[in-house]
């Protein structure tokens, strides 16, 4: 995989576009959502954290991450999806996402995750991993719908927004796995 370049992806009525500084206000408006605060270790605690998070998501220059704002057709922010920890030698990456409460239950995260996996596979990534807290059952449903296979449990693996280290479930999707039936 060569250095990822900012690009826009479309899937159904969703638009996945590079983050921009103007997105800060929309993210801050979503920051009161307890689920976003619970399952994200940082980024939603203050306007400064939101500014730093959006700047980090917008920065593709290191070659080890690619992030998209997920919007509807008129530009309303619905969430985020990112590839991070991209290892071009091994052909591996990790996927992360979050979705605004008003957009949950509509397949937004699963369709965005699938679109980014397809993009990554076309760019030469062979394996995409996804981790989530055991207690975050909704994220497990997203992983399954997006074509990931559950591989195992990591004990006390990651400190989430509540400050507690949670066990996580590890999922993966390989470039030659059958695509999910989302559309």
CATH superfamily: Gcn5-related N-acetyltransferase (GNAT)
Radius of gyration: 15 Å
Whole-number mean pLDDT? 90
Helical percent range?
25-40%
For the termini, the CA-CA separation is 27 Å
Strands of the biggest beta sheet: in what spatial order? 1-2-3-4-5-6-8-7
What does the model show?
With 183 residues, the chain is an alpha+beta fold. It has a single domain, classed as Gcn5-related N-acetyltransferase (GNAT) (Aminopeptidase, 3-Layer(aba) Sandwich), CATH 3.40.630.30. It is built from five helices and eight strands. It has helices at residues 24-30, 34-39, 47-58, 108-122, 137-145; strands at residues 9-11, 14-18, 66-71, 77-87, 92-99, 127-133, 149-159, 165-174. The protein has an eight-stranded mixed beta sheet with strand order 1-2-3-4-5-6-8-7, covered by helices on one side. Strand 3 and strand 4 form a beta hairpin. Helix 1 (24-30) crosses helix 3 and helix 4 crosses helix 5 (137-145). It is globular and about 40 Å long. It starts with 8 loop residues before the first strand and ends in a 9-residue tail after the last strand. The model has no long low-confidence stretch (mean pLDDT 90).
Quick summary of this structure?
The chain is an alpha+beta fold and 183 residues long. It is built from five helices and eight strands; from the N terminus they run ββαααβββαβαββ. Strands 1-2-3-4-5-6-8-7 form an eight-stranded mixed beta sheet, covered by helices on one side.
Q: Layout of helices and strands, plus pairs?
A:
Layout: E1 9-11, E2 14-18, H1 24-30, H2 34-39, H3 47-58, E3 66-71, E4 77-87, E5 92-99, H4 108-122, E6 127-133, H5 137-145, E7 149-159, E8 165-174
Parallel strand pairs: 5-6
Antiparallel strand pairs: 1-2, 2-3, 3-4, 4-5, 6-8, 7-8
Helix pairs in contact: 1-3, 4-5
């Amino acid at each position: 995989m060569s250095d990822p370049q900012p690009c826009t992806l479309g899937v159904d009525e969703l638009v996945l576009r590079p983050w921009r500084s103007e997105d800060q206000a929309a993210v801050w408006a979503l920051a009161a959502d307890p689920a976003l605060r619970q399952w994200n270790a940082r980024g939603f605690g203050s306007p400064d954290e939101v500014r730093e998070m959006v700047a980090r998501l917008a920065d593709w220059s290191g070659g080890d991450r690619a992030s998209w704002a997920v919007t509807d057709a008129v530009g309303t922010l619905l969430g985020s999806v990112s590839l991070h920890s991209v290892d071009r030698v091994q052909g591996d990456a990790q996927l992360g996402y979050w979705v605004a409460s008003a957009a949950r239950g509509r397949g937004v995260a699963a369709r965005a995750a699938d679109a980014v996996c397809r993009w990554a596979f076309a760019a030469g990534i062979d394996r995409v991993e996804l981790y989530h807290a055991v207690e975050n059952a909704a994220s497990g449903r997203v992983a399954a719908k997006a074509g990931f296979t559950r591989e195992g449990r990591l004990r006390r693996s990651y400190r989430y927004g509540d400050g507690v280290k949670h066990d996580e479930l590890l999922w993966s999707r390989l470039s030659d796995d059958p695509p999910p039936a989302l559309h």
